[in-house]
């Protein structure tokens, strides 16, 4: 009895191929929880479609995944002076985002991140004259720019990349390879056409693995069903049932990521109003679960437990049966399943 990720493998891989065709030389990203699939599975997929490099988030992830992927491993988190040493093979490529960091990476394979409008990390235009000496001490794999997802100011992603290409060229720095993120296919093609001597490589995770929402589905198994009448007490806190129905114990709790949610960027009055409504309901212990039964998302009867959730299903809905599965709307990047099943 499990929380299961079902994968329509044929459809999932067809989507992968469509992304690969749009972004020649793609660098697949496998970080965090492996986008819900796990590191081992994504390393296997990257090997299957012939990728020569796999991007990971941290050195710890690189150390775990090195036995599953035989190509190069690009670590996206920039090197820091006081970081804990993690043994990595020579095929590991480190990102650096400062002149100091580059100077400490002698003989290492490195990608230099430039400061984009994200303003997260990266070398600045003022740093460029200081890179020449340090570059001679490392094995430079290229430069990289990480772009924002939204552009509320109306700015253009291609123009931002071109601006950096011009700065690097003016500084007489090598432009053999440029790693990019969050570009549309036509934007990627435009850059490759405008700079034919530079190889652009798109680092892509979400779009590659999760771009076809209908290729995957989460489901939790019903473990127990207990009838309750209005006013019956139940659960850890002995709350009262708000009506007649069933308490449904379903596989999937906080250890799986059920009930955990990252903050959302709200746009427009409608989304803000919904956010206020959800917050108001939460103050009276009314929280909507991700589990669906009878065509509706059902309410948590109480906060999810570590490995299971208890739902309240009202008497006007069909009675769930032990062993049936409930579809769950879960965020891939925060969910850890008991098993994944290809179909």
Descriptive report:
- This protein is an alpha/beta fold.
- It is built from nine helices and 18 strands.
- The protein has helices spanning about 10-20, 40-50, 60-65, 100-105, 130-135, 155-170, 185-195, 205-210, 270-280, and strands at about 5, 25-30, 55, 70-75, 90-95, 110-115, 140-145, 175-180, 200-205, 215-230, 235, 240, 245-250, 290-295, 295-300, 310-315, 325-330, 340.
- The strands form three sheets. It has an eight-stranded parallel β-sheet. A six-stranded antiparallel barrel has the order 10-13-16-15-14-17.
- Strand 3 (about 55), helix 3 (about 60-65) and strand 4 (about 70-75) form a beta-alpha-beta unit.
- It starts with a strand and ends with a strand.
Describe the structure concisely:
Helix content is 25%, strand content 28%. The chain has 343 residues and is of the alpha/beta class. The strands form three sheets. The protein has an eight-stranded parallel sheet with strand order 2-9-8-7-6-5-4-3. Strands 10-13-16-15-14-17 form a six-stranded antiparallel beta barrel.
List the SSEs and their pairings.
Layout: E1 3-7, H1 9-22, E2 27-28, H2 39-48, E3 53-56, H3 59-65, E4 72-75, E5 92-96, H4 99-103, E6 109-114, H5 131-135, E7 139-146, H6 157-170, E8 177-181, H7 185-194, E9 199-204, H8 206-210, E10 216-228, E11 233-234, E12 239-240, E13 245-251, H9 268-282, E14 288-293, E15 296-300, E16 308-314, E17 325-328, E18 339-342
Parallel strand pairs: 1-18, 2-9, 3-4, 4-5, 5-6, 6-7, 7-8, 8-9
Antiparallel strand pairs: 1-10, 10-13, 10-17, 11-12, 13-16, 14-15, 14-17, 15-16
């Amino acid at each position: 009895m499990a929380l299961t990720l079902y994968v329509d493998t044929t459809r999932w891989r067809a989507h992968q191929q469509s992304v690969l065709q749009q972004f020649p030389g793609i660098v697949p990203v496998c970080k965090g929880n492996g986008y819900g699939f796990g590191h081992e599975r994504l390393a296997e997929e990257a090997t299957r479609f012939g990728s020569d490099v796999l991007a990971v988030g941290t050195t710890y992830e690189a150390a775990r995944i090195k036995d599953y992927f035989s190509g190069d491993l690009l670590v996206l988190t920039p090197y820091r002076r006081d970081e804990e040493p993690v043994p990595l093979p020579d095929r590991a490529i480190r990102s650096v985002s400062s002149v100091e960091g580059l100077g400490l990476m002698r003989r290492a394979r490195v990608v230099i991140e430039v400061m984009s409008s994200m303003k997260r990390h990266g070398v600045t235009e003022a740093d460029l004259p200081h890179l020449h000496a340090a570059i001679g001490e490392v094995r430079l794999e290229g430069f990289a720019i990480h772009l924002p997802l939204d552009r509320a100011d109306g700015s253009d992603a291609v123009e931002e990349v071109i601006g950096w290409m011009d700065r690097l060229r003016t500084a007489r720095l090598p432009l053999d390879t440029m790693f990019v993120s969050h570009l549309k296919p036509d934007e990627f093609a435009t850059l490759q056409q405008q700079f034919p001597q530079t190889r652009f490589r798109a680092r892509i995770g979400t779009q590659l693995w999760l771009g076809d929402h209908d290729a995957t589905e989460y489901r939790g198994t019903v473990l127990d069903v207990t009838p309750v009448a209005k006013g019956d007490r139940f659960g850890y806190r002995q709350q009262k049932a708000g009506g007649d129905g069933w308490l449904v114990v379903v596989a999937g709790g906080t250890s799986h990521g059920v009930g955990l949610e990252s903050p959302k960027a709200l746009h427009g009055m409608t989304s803000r109003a919904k956010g206020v409504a959800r917050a108001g309901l939460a103050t009276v212990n009314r929280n909507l679960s991700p589990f669906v039964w009878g065509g509706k998302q059902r309410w948590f009867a109480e906060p999810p437990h570590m490995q299971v959730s208890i739902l309240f299903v009202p008497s006007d809905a069909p009675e769930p049966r032990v062993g049936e599965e409930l579809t769950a709307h879960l965020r891939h990047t925060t969910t850890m399943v008991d098993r994944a099943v290809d179909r």
